[in-house]
Each structure stands twice: as C-alpha cells, then as structure tokens.
Amino acid sequence: MYQAGEYVVYADNGLCLVEQVGVPDFNAGERDRTYYFLRTNTDKSRIYVPTDTQLPLRPPMTAQEAEAFLGSVGEIPVSLPQRRDRKTVVQHYQNMLSSHTKEALAQAIKSIRYAHRGAAGRMSGAEESVLRRAERQLCSELSGVLNISMEDAGERLTRALTAQ
User: How many CB atoms lie within 10 A of CB 151?
Assistant: First the structure.
C-alpha cells in the first residue's frame, strides 16, 4: 500500500502524488473502503482511486532509471498497424497503450511519429489523440522524477527517440 507523500504512476494519468489515504466524504456509504487521494502532476487535478483498484498503479521510475530509459529508448522498435483504416489504427495503438508501461508509451510515440515523418501524410485525429496522451503520460513521469519541466522532458524524450 502506498502512503501519503509518495508518488505513483496511475493508469492514463501519469505521475501523481498520494496526498492522503482514507475514506472520501462522498463515499460515506462504504466506510470500510479506503481510497488514494491522488494529485496529478500535469494539471494538478484530484483523483480518488480505491486502494484495491484493478487499474494499473505502480511506483515511478527513479531518476537513475529514467536516465537509463532515455539512453535506451532509441532502440525501441517501431510498430505500425497492418492497415491504415481508422478502426485498425485506433485498435493497434490502444492495444499498445493498454499495458501502461513506459516502453509501450515510448513505442507508441515513436511509431506514430515514424508513420508521419516527412511527406507520409497528415496524422489522423485518432493518432494525434493517442500521441498526445502517450506524451503527456510519459513526460509527466520523466519531468517529476528528473525534476525538469514537461517541455524539457518532451525535448529530452524526442532527442532520445530519434537517437540510434
């Protein structure tokens, strides 16, 4: 169980601070069910998550792990959908992101950027949405653990993804 003051990475929300563990006021009917009161690193919104959640909740990378990750992320392979129709593209990237790992997030970012390099065509709204979501999640963790801005984390990630 996580404690107040610790950081976690929660599902699609990226890095979050555990502000409190307890029973929220709105949950008076279930006094025996405890929640994490999380504050997101990106927009500072509050999220209430049951401590027994089935959604991905994990400790963030350490600063050393983040540096090592950035050093190796350029080697992550590109994974493109079999077909370019909207349904196939969305399903491909949704499947990729469903693991909520830093590697899957980086692979989605790299793959979408690769598919639209140069004159490869305009990015679909669905791809742009997946790209922004993956970047937000990964950069929130990197910025928090490396103590840099989201913009700096994005720049470092972009450089690392294009390095070979």
Answer: 10
